[in-house]
Each structure stands twice: as C-alpha cells, then as structure tokens.
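Exercise: predict the fold of this chain.
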Amino acid sequence: MTAGIWFKPYTLENLTTLRKANMGEHVGFEFTAIGPDFLKGRLPVDHRTTQPFGILHGGASCVLSETLGSVAAWMTIDPDLYRAVGLEINCNHIRAITEGFVTGMCTSLHVGRRTQVWQTDITEDATGKRVAISRLTLSIIDHGTLSTQKEAIHVR
C-alpha cells in the first residue's frame, strides 16, 4: 500500500474490481503497479487491440491512457464527493508494435481542485521502447453532477 498523492492508500486489489464489465476488461487491460505518484497498467497487443493491418490500434493506446489517467485522477479525490471525467485526450503514436504487451506509466502534470492533467508514457514490454505518449485532461465534478445533467437532457 502507498499513499503519496492518493486520497487514501489503494492497492492493486482495490483497482482490479474497477475493470469489470467495461472497456478495460473487453481489451484485456490490467493494472500492474501503484507508486507514490504513478499508476501503471498493461494491454495485450492481439486481435482485440490491433487495427486491420495488424499493428496496435491508436484507439487502444487511448484506451490505455484514459483508463490509467481517469483512475489515477479518481485516486486523488474523495470518491464520495467527486468524480473525475475526461475532457480531452491527445496521443502521439511513435512506433508500431504487432504482438506482445504494452505498458503505460501514468504520472500527473497537474492535480488541481477542478482540473487535472495526466501523462501516460506507453512502452513495448519486450524492448522497453516508446510506442506512444499521451496526455489526458480531466474535470473534477461534484458526485451528483452526472445524474443531474442526464435528467436535464431528458427534459428537453
């Protein structure tokens, strides 16, 4: 267990329950490490995550980055009071990979009261070479905000 920048000391076991029945589970994502100021996870490069030409799909890199960044942001806030929701993601694809695994290491660039920015460096497990680098910007909203927005949309 480690606290660091986190709201409370989370473990990998705590995070494993978050990936049930969502995009992360569908593509084979798994959390691999929590440090005092970083979160790591990995993704297989296989039929679920490659594009038609057999290389890692750019969207899969974004899934890795958004999963890590969103969870990392959530780990810094009181989950009973707030939620972290994505505003923007940017991903630069640097190297093609056709098999194995990629690992993302997510670190904060800014952890504010209402916005956060997280960077994920994605590397190939076999060589350690950089495959992509991504930046995710999130908004920290009050816990009830999403349901209030949904109700307002249905009223219109």
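Check your answer against the key: The domain at 24-155 is CATH 3.10.129.10 (Thiol Ester Dehydrase; Chain A).
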